[in-house]
């Protein structure tokens, strides 16, 4: 079914990340739907390893310049864009000096999770939502990949609940086996600043607990990895949300 507007929100995509299943799957899904005549956009964080020169990223001045308030602190939102190498598919990068300049993703060189991973996820989610609105582009399908993207549906169904901009968009969540880590215990206060409370994930805030929480805020859950770890598999089997077993990339348009 061509002529759909499909938004991929992801933390990884080939060739910006090279060695993960998620990066490969998102690349293939986005390209397949783009080549079938859909209007496809991809949003991801501009992690420090992504070379602006190699991939020809440039700042979009008309989209940059917003401030997103995280825990009562103003954080400037910078939007960069590039075309997927060799393709006419636009990838938007959410950037901020404080959160995304560092060369590592979620863990320091000793393997410890960054203290501000929670704030980085909040900033990413809100940055994507605000930028889409500024683009004046309304997606039919929002497909989430990677733990940071799980904050998007939580925000859409709480903080942005009275905003009708995304009301007709269907949200798909892909589940992947990602390295587990605790999130800052003060995340409850930070979310409360945005009038978000009562989440089960706040009892034990971790990367995985927020992915599992977000299953309650989407229209369909699908396995991104064919075999999920025990906790994710249990949550997948128990969720009341519509779900689909692992789909190869050729079948993804049936889901949409």
Automatic annotation (TrEMBL):
GO terms for molecular function: alpha-1,4-glucan glucosyltransferase (ADP-glucose donor) activity. Keywords: Glycosyltransferase, Transferase. Its EC number is 2.4.1.21. Residues 5-179 form the Starch synthase catalytic domain. Pfam families: Glyco_transf_5 (PF08323). It is an enzyme of class 2 (transferase). It catalyses: [(1->4)-alpha-D-glucosyl](n) + ADP-alpha-D-glucose = [(1->4)-alpha-D-glucosyl](n+1) + ADP + H(+). It comes from Chryseobacterium contaminans. This is starch synthase.
